[in-house]
Design a protein that fits this description.
Elements (H helix, E strand, L loop, with lengths): L18 H14 L15 E4 L4 E4 L3 E3 L4 E6 L9 E6 L4 E2 L4 E9 L5 E10 L8 E9 L5 E7 L3 E9 L6 E10 L3 E2 L4 E11 L5 E8 L2 E5 L2 H4 L5 E8 L14 E2 L2 E2 L17 E2 L8 E7 H7 L4 E9 L5 E13 L24
Parallel strand pairs: 15-23, 16-23
Antiparallel strand pairs: 1-2, 3-7, 4-5, 5-14, 6-13, 7-12, 8-11, 8-14, 9-10, 9-12, 15-17, 17-21, 18-19, 18-22, 20-21, 22-23
């Protein structure tokens, strides 16, 4: 359980550094062309100053955008780098309107930057779960005003090594860490979002993987009678190089393009490797990891005469792998079947006849 009442820092519901102050900072920056920093300033929130009222410790280099129904400060209640983290939290017993929020933001130059990594934790003070609040990471371009929520969570938990894609942005940008109310209400519990350890991130190069699909030829027809004859699955066999072991592949993190591998109760459909999803399909002495994809999902992205697909994923230690394969596609007209589709045979056990 955490407690923030002793350092709420807001008196009588007055917003000391609210939206007007935010606009006062933004407008001069937009018109003066002041260059944003080329790196994230005070990324672990260790450098603080005494903000008013209270005083409360606030982080240097981070501006504050706030509503009186929220509070914000640096705290040692949770951190992953250094002693402090940034905390945005609701105020207990105070009425909150939908879309009210609290945020820390700063201006940085995102030219040639692709990813930002950070740690976050969402926590309720009474262990009662997560009320209607959402924590989000927002990027806004100062050149054209475009804004995007690149990360959001609305459930309680600790979220480490979160990577957000900022490659769509360049030049001067604003990054903001925000806690937003998604519904109107007054809550007796305090809901907090903690942030720490921000940094630019270079995505590691993926190791090469050999991909084999079965079937590697899809026959697509608009005749449902034909489609009912097809298997539900497309099997994917993943073979890694000599320095890596297919038994370490996390099945829940395997994707064909953006299609996730099927995970279920069947032994072959479990995230961990086991005797049902490991094989040596090409008899070369190197094990392959098998995962299955829904045939219908692959048909939705496939086009004749062939479609190149990318299979990617993670090992248990976080190592990325990637490989490609080609799916041949045959479009079949319903009135020209290649062969008749017969219903499956129902087998009955017939005991041998006794000879006389």
């Amino acid at each position: 359980m955490y407690h923030v009442g002793a350092i709420m820092g807001l008196e009588g519901g007055k917003c000391w550094t609210g939206r007007a102050a935010c606009l006062a900072v933004l407008i001069p920056l937009l018109w003066s062309g002041v260059c944003a920093a080329a790196e994230i300033q005070n990324p672990s929130f260790e450098d603080t100053y005494d903000g008013l009222p209270a005083p409360r410790p606030l982080p240097w280099y981070w501006y504050l955008n706030e509503y009186s129904s929220f509070n914000s400060y640096c705290t040692d209640l949770w951190s992953t780098d250094g002693d402090l983290s940034a905390c945005l939290c609701s105020r207990s017993g105070i009425g909150i309107e939908s879309n009210d929020f609290q945020g820390f933001y700063q201006f940085i130059d995102l030219t040639d930057e692709d990813f930002i990594i950070f740690d976050a934790m969402l926590l309720a003070s009474d262990d009662g779960g997560w009320a209607p609040f959402e924590a989000s990471f927002i990027v806004t371009s100062m050149e054209d005003g475009t804004s995007e929520i690149v990360w959001s969570r609305a459930e309680e938990g600790e979220f480490l090594d979160q990577v957000v894609d900022v490659s769509a942005f360049t030049g001067q940008c604003m990054i903001e860490l925000r806690l937003t109310a998604t519904a109107r209400g007054a809550y007796n519990t305090e809901y907090a979002a903690f942030w720490d350890n921000l940094a630019f991130y270079e995505e590691p190069a993926a190791i090469s993987a050999s991909i084999r699909l079965f079937p590697d030829t899809l026959t697509i027809s608009c005749d449902d009678r034909w489609n009912r004859c097809q298997s539900r699955w497309v099997a994917c066999f993943i073979e890694l190089g000599e320095d890596y072991d297919a038994t370490q592949i996390d099945g829940s993190m395997v994707y064909l393009n953006n299609i996730p591998a099927y995970m279920g109760g069947e032994w072959w459909a479990r995230p961990q490797a086991n005797w049902m999803n490991l094989t040596d399909v090409d008899w070369d002495g190197i094990l392959e990891r098998m995962v299955m994809f829904e045939r219908a999902d692959i048909e939705a992205i496939a086009a004749a005469p062939e479609t190149a697909v990318t299979v990617s994923g993670l090992l248990l230690d976080g190592t990325m792998f990637q490989g490609t394969a080609v799916i041949k596609v045959i479009e079949k007209r319903p009135w020209k079947p290649q062969w008749p589709c017969k219903p499956p045979v129902t087998w009955r056990f017939q005991p041998p006849r006794c000879s006389r």
